[in-house]
Design brief:
Blueprint lengths: L1 H11 L9 E4 L2 E4 L2 E2 L2 E4 L7 E2 L17 E2 L3 H13 L4 E3 L19 E2 L9 E2 L1 H17 L2 E8 L7 H6 L14 H14 L16 E8 L6 H14 L4 E4 L7 H5 L5 E6 L8 H11 L5 E6 L4 H13 L1 E2 L2 E2 L2 E4 L37 H15 L15 E5 L4 E5 L6 E8 L6 E7 L14 E2 L9 E10 L2 E2 L6 E4 L8 E3 L2 E4 L2 E3 L1 E5 L3 H5 L5 H13 L4 E5 L16 E3 L2 E2 L1 H16 L3 E5 L9 H8 L15 H8 L6 H15 L16 E5 L12 H18 L4 E3 L12 H6 L9 E5 L12 H26 L3 E7 L14 H19 L4 E7 L1 E3 L31 E2 L3 H15 L4
Parallel strand pairs: 4-17, 7-10, 10-11, 11-12, 12-13, 13-14, 14-17, 29-30, 29-38, 30-33, 33-34, 34-35, 36-37, 37-38, 39-40
Antiparallel strand pairs: 1-2, 2-3, 5-6, 8-9, 15-16, 18-19, 19-22, 20-21, 20-23, 23-24, 23-25, 26-27, 27-28, 31-32
């Protein structure tokens, strides 16, 4: 038993790539007793990705700020393996990013967050640092040494200027060792170095994969005092790891004699006049053998210039001392789902390099540059030439779409790929393509495809695919197998001109509002009722459901309970699972969801709840005695000018769109079940003073969603003229953003005094005329903008405004019939009116008449939200006449026999 326990422990213990820390003696670096030199590439995005494909964030006030995201663990592992399997053993990351005021609007997350209290110390973003934990763990497992600079002199990722802004100091105060900014910088150093890695279980100062800490990136204004204090502080925390002086363009004399500085570094660029071999020679002479010397960055010039510098690094010695290493700028790795990330290096005309080098990068001399680096490393190791690359490992096949587009994460040293398929009526795999590359520069996953097959003529059934990587050494084992078949549903609904397109055909529909669906779908909800209701909806052709993506707060008597967002960016996990479950069940029934992310009205918390959270005082509840609707609207109008409110809302948007469904495993942003995201329910321009803030919020929100979920549609959820101060022109102006895919309008005949319950027959005709006129005016706006428009909310009461499901619905049925004639006409004439979502489906819910049809916690959820009489505008599953009308029009619209 004791032997078995010992063997189990040995098997469970991960194999570590490193026996030693890298050390220095005099002018040389050592791995144990072996001299250590390196040639490599900088890899700035191993821990944070600047996605050039998405371009500049329009919401960034600086006009150049990019979009960023975190890498997946698979991506990081692939990148680290790409270095190691290419024979490269060191790389240098970029800095820890610092928060900036436009981050939320651009869906950017950073490593370093502002202090929670005035003049407090900055905080590390735990999510970001777990990504860094992953990088260190992969580097340790695979055998890659890391050089890590702390803070940037420049603003690209947020640097000294952004750090100083936390304390209302200037960017130059960063270098002042008596400033608050410098104290914050030291705090960051301590928090990082003393962090315990959540994967390896070791403190960062114990990680042997961390070769060196660099005081920062290109800290051009470094002083002796700044460098000496910083280096001493780093050494006191991490005595076994090396320290690099991150100064730039010059070498401080004091650093040569500072016992806490281990390595002197310099960066070479043509703009500085130092991008040449002579700089290596000059620097080695200046250092005079007192410290190891590396060229931390150089590049952005033709291969001849790069070769001259690299050969000088490899071969030139001053009084017997050679440079310890050099790294060309810079590397980008493979994407999780195929292709490579890329980066344009300013206006230099140069792009990032991809390992192991591709013909597709010929304009960038990519293969020559990679070969230069590999040969230089080999010569430093005492070899005459670079070894042959190892046989590639199997790629990871991610997906095969209905139209046979394949996506895969390439093999770290794969140069090209073979594609094989197998039909269900055959036992044999056949090669359908070879020499397929994933090395295209400027790869855009929204437009580019790695490989697309064609359906075998006359075949209907399942097809299996696998991918094999190849390089000069041979072929990998086949990838995992992914199957597809001719019955697979297509992907996302899209817009072409003024029409929705589904499965290649125009899509018109009558759907419903089903705001409470996630509440039923929660583990502690009523899933039996949910399934029954979804089946009832599907049987009546109602497959487009407009759903509230969670209430906020759940504080007032007039708001939905329980709330999804309990506090700012703090969530009820049960309700998140409920939304997951609802989407999964909808997918089984070929349904689409329109998810709205906020609410103008108090019934789900919404904008007024954000204001209360951010210190704007209690929400004036218009359902309480003595509080008017005007007071509520005046209060809520502040949302569009409340920066903390909007920042919190943008975080909420990012959180939901980047959530992965716990049932299906599909990220929300990649789920075709989600047809559209709506900014909010009925966001309104209340007065002249909110016109500009409202439009700014719309554009920032739309731009953000477009970046996060480019395959899904975007609408505002606005009511039309009714939500635009009665102005059709203002409605049009607020929807000019090109990423708003379609327009919305809402209509409430009773609330707008078109329909009088005391004169039902006569006022019904008035309501129909007014409704047709209202729609016609808005359809004309849609036509002028060449966009579809949806009546995404309209309601009509039961006879005599009864709340009982047993009451008649004669007048509502007539109104519905009249409204649906418009969409039938639109469908027959390829018109702009594309959909209706009636308010609202109540299914098999039962109101509580004992409470006078006022919702109480614990009652069934109906289509009418908490503050309204329960049953007033609801369509129940027992409303056979109403559902028959809806089913008939959907059969007509969809061209399907039900």
């Amino acid at each position: 038993m004791r032997l078995l326990t010992l063997l189990t422990a040995l098997i469970a213990t991960p194999t570590l790539a490193f026996d030693n820390y890298i050390t220095r003696t005099g002018s040389e670096l050592y791995d144990g007793n072996t001299p250590f030199r390196f040639a490599s590439l900088n890899a700035p995005e191993l821990h944070r990705i600047e996605d050039d494909t998405l371009g500049v964030c329009k919401n960034d006030s600086r006009s150049w700020g990019q979009y960023f995201k975190w890498p997946t663990s698979d991506e990081q592992k692939n990148w680290v393996q790409s270095f190691v399997k290419s024979g490269l053993n060191v790389t240098r990351t970029y800095v820890f990013s610092v928060a900036q005021k436009d981050d939320e609007k651009c869906a950017r997350e950073t490593h370093i967050l502002p202090p929670e209290e005035k003049d407090g110390m900055p905080r590390l973003n735990e999510k970001a640092m777990r990504i860094f934990d992953q990088l260190i763990a992969h580097s340790d497992n695979e055998g890659l040494r890391l050089i890590i600079p702390f803070i940037d002199h420049w603003e690209w990722w947020g640097g000294r200027k952004q750090l100083a802004a936390f304390y209302a100091e200037t960017d130059d105060d960063f270098y002042n060792t008596n400033s608050k900014t410098y104290a914050a910088y030291k705090s960051i150093i301590k928090q990082v170095i003393t962090r315990k890695n959540t994967i390896t279980g070791r403190y960062y100062y114990e990680e042997k994969s961390i070769m060196a800490w660099e005081t920062g990136n290109e800290l051009v204004k470094s002083t002796t005092d700044f460098v000496s204090q910083t280096a001493a502080y780093i050494k006191s925390l991490a005595p076994n790891q090396l320290v690099i002086d991150g100064n730039y363009l010059s070498i401080l004399d004091s650093s040569l004699d500072d016992p806490n500085i281990d390595i002197i570094s310099n960066h070479f660029y043509t703009v500085n006049g130092n991008n040449k071999p002579q700089t290596v020679k000059n620097d080695l002479k200046k250092i005079a053998g007192k410290k190891p010397y590396i060229v931390g960055e150089f590049g952005l010039q033709p291969i001849e210039g790069l070769r001259d510098i690299m050969e000088t690094v490899v071969n030139y010695s001053y009084n017997g001392v050679k440079a310890s290493g050099a790294m060309i700028w810079g590397f980008r790795g493979r994407r999780h789902n195929g292709g490579f990330y890329w980066h344009a290096e300013g206006d230099s005309g140069y792009y990032s390099y991809h390992l192991p080098g591709f013909d597709a990068g010929k304009a960038n001399e990519e293969k020559k540059v990679i070969q230069l680096v590999r040969e230089s490393q080999a010569k430093m190791n005492g070899l005459e030439s670079a070894p042959t690359l190892p046989v590639p490992q199997a790629p990871i096949l991610r997906n095969v779409t209905k139209d046979l587009k394949l996506s895969w994460l390439g093999s770290p040293v794969g140069e090209h790929y073979s594609i094989e398929r197998k039909l269900s009526n055959s036992a044999d795999w056949e090669r359908v393509a070879s020499e397929v590359t994933d090395g295209k520069n400027k790869f855009n996953p929204q437009k580019d495809t790695l490989f697309q097959d064609t359906w075998p003529a006359g075949y209907s059934g399942e097809i299996s695919y696998r991918v094999i990587a190849e390089n000069e050494a041979g072929k990998s084992a086949p990838s995992n197998v992914v199957n597809t078949n001719s019955n697979n549903k297509n992907t996302f609904i899209k817009v072409e001109g003024s029409q929705f397109i589904k499965n290649g055909k125009p899509y018109y529909y009558v759907g419903t509002n089903y705001w409470y669906g996630p509440l039923l779908a929660a583990p502690d909800g009523d899933r039996k009722r949910l399934i029954k209701e979804l089946d009832n909806l599907a049987n009546n052709g109602i497959k487009n459901l407009r759903i509230l993506a969670g209430a906020d707060g759940g504080i007032t008597d007039s708001s939905v309970k329980p709330a999804l967002q309990i506090k700012p960016n703090e969530y009820n996990e049960n309700l998140l699972i409920g939304l997951d479950y609802l989407l999964a069940e909808m997918s089984k029934r070929d349904m689409e969801a329109v998810l709205y992310l906020n609410n103008n009205w108090i019934w789900s918390g919404g904008m007024s709840q954000y204001l209360q959270w951010m210190g704007y005082g209690d929400v004036p509840n218009p359902f309480e005695e003595g509080v008017s609707w005007q007071e509520y609207m005046d209060y809520t109008e502040q949302f569009y000018s409340c920066d903390p409110c909007k920042a919190s809302y943008y975080k909420h948007v990012k959180f939901l769109l980047e959530r992965t469904n716990s049932i299906t495993g599909v990220p929300y942003k990649n789920d075709p079940t989600i047809m559209s995201w709506q900014l909010a329910n009925e966001p309104r321009v209340f007065s002249e003073k909110s016109k500009i803030p409202f439009r700014q919020w719309v554009n920032e929100s739309v731009n953000l969603i477009n970046v996060l979920a480019p395959n899904q549609l975007i609408s505002t959820g606005n009511e039309g003229a009714a939500g635009s101060m009665g102005s059709l022109e203002l409605f049009r102006e607020n929807h000019t953003n090109k990423h708003i895919d379609y327009l919305t309008m809402h209509m409430w005949p009773k609330n707008w005094s078109w329909y009088d319950v005391n004169n039902e027959a006569e006022s019904l005709e008035t309501a129909i005329d007014e409704a047709n006129q209202y729609m016609s005016e808005h359809i004309e706006i849609a036509k002028s903008m060449n966009k579809p428009i949806v009546m995404s909310e309209f309601g009509f009461p039961r006879n005599k405004e009864s709340n009982s499901p047993k009451s008649l619905t004669d007048y509502r049925d007539k109104f519905y019939k009249a409204m649906f004639r418009n969409i039938t006409h639109s469908r027959n004439h390829d018109g702009e009116l594309a959909g209706f979502n009636f308010w609202a489906y109540a299914g098999y819910g039962v109101a509580n008449p004992k409470s006078n049809y006022i919702w109480q916690e614990g009652d069934d959820y109906l289509g009418d939200p908490a503050q309204e009489p329960q049953g007033l505008n609801s369509v129940f599953a027992t409303d056979v006449s109403t559902l028959k009308i809806i089913k008939k029009v959907n059969v007509n619209l969809q061209g399907v026999n039900q």
